[in-house]
Amino acid sequence: MPERTILIVDDEPDMLRLLRRSLAPDLGCRVEVAESGKAALRRISQEKFDLILADIKMPEMDGLALLELIKRSYPDLTVVMMTGHGSIETAVDAMKNGAYDFITKPFDHDALVVRLEKALERSSLIRENTRLKKERRSDNVFQKLVGKSAAMRRVFETIRMVANTDLTVLITGESGTGKDLTAQAVHAMSSRSQQPFIPVNCPTVPEHILESELFGYRKGAFTHATRNRIGLFQEAHRGSIFLDEIGDVSPAIQTKLLRVLQEKEIKPLGDTRIIKVDVRIIASTNQNLKEKIRNGEFREDFFYRLNVLPIELPPLRERREDIPLITSHLLKKHCKKLNRPLRQLSPELMEIFQAREWAGNIRELENVVVQGILFAKGEEIFPQDVGLDKKGPAPPCLIADISEGLLYKAAKEQLLRQFNETYIGRLLSQTDGNVTQAAKLCGLERQSLQQIMRRYHIRADDFRA
């Protein structure tokens, strides 16, 4: 629970010292003081307080004037007034104007503590109510994940439950379902949220480099190791490390990771020392690890160490009711990023979206939305703007169209080539081969666009009338 803070406002320094010294330990909160109404307003504008305890009789700005200004700008802030016996009527007026309570001087200390504790409880209830209202307003967005389907609500609830533990999490799901966002959500909602979150895309790092990246190395451990280097596990100390697509790591790396999970320690390459690390491991995979275990490609003991708290993400085709929400979210995000007016999908295109299988899941949907933003001629995006009609195939630049059986690098290169040929080709068609205009449309420098065109042998002349 965050530390509670009280601001006491009184023009008598002795009273401020007495209350500050006695209330802080008895209420278990931080007590700040201000010697005038103006000083109090400055403090309130600079930091958050759970409770204001203010005297009514003060020079220049009295407590009633202070109360009026506080309630005008901070209507939910709890204010308790202090008053002498002779001004109870004034105190009652103060309550009519928004004060929560009033306390008469001289006061019994124990009674004062009880009254202020109740006032603090009121502040806590207001804060919790505000939080719940905010959650309801963004009920369909959980961290950066979007959805209202029963399947996604189960995912959100699972994230809430696992985040507050310190156990290992294994996130499974097809490519493009949001495993990276789920990992970020687990970290953001955990007690480690203020510490590093280190993502590692395992398939993109060759095995001989991955070990040194994860665990670090000592100078001279191998050729070109000219200095000591700490690994990603040490960088993630007291935070979280996200091992994306863990199913692609070799059995040798699995063995070393198993030691980290079991012993919470690493050994940098070329070092004789064992280094203790305090790291939460979050892993993900789009593969069937049990099948890989049967094939001897994945260690069974490593799997069970990873699969302590599983989170399974549903494919988009199993939560079609979320497609309008996700599409709306992506349109707002990318229209802003691409500096375009906010667009919307035509009813015909939305019908197609909800009928598609989306083999590439949200990532594939996002690709199509970005194309629509770029190529739509008006406020609405139509099927023809993204190369779709009710009978037509998916645009050739989407992940779903990559040939199966390719090695990672070849598949990646094919995807990039298809995307650039289609994307840049449409830009050049739209601008009649004008590279400068095409560069402005896609937010690139002219030289950068030309460099990409040269790499993929795209000629502007082919698009000139």
Automatic annotation (TrEMBL):
Pfam families: AAA_lid_14, Response_reg, Sigma54_activat. Gene3D superfamilies: 1.10.8.60, 3.40.50.2300, Homeodomain-like, P-loop containing nucleotide triphosphate hydrolases. Keywords: ATP-binding, DNA-binding, Nucleotide-binding, Phosphoprotein, Transcription, Transcription regulation, Two-component regulatory system. GO terms for biological process: phosphorelay signal transduction system; regulation of DNA-templated transcription. The modification 4-aspartylphosphate is found at residue 55. Residues 145-374 form the Sigma-54 factor interaction domain. Residues 5-120 form the Response regulatory domain. CDD domains: AAA (cd00009). GO terms for molecular function: ATP binding; sequence-specific DNA binding. This is Sigma-54-dependent Fis family transcriptional re gulator.
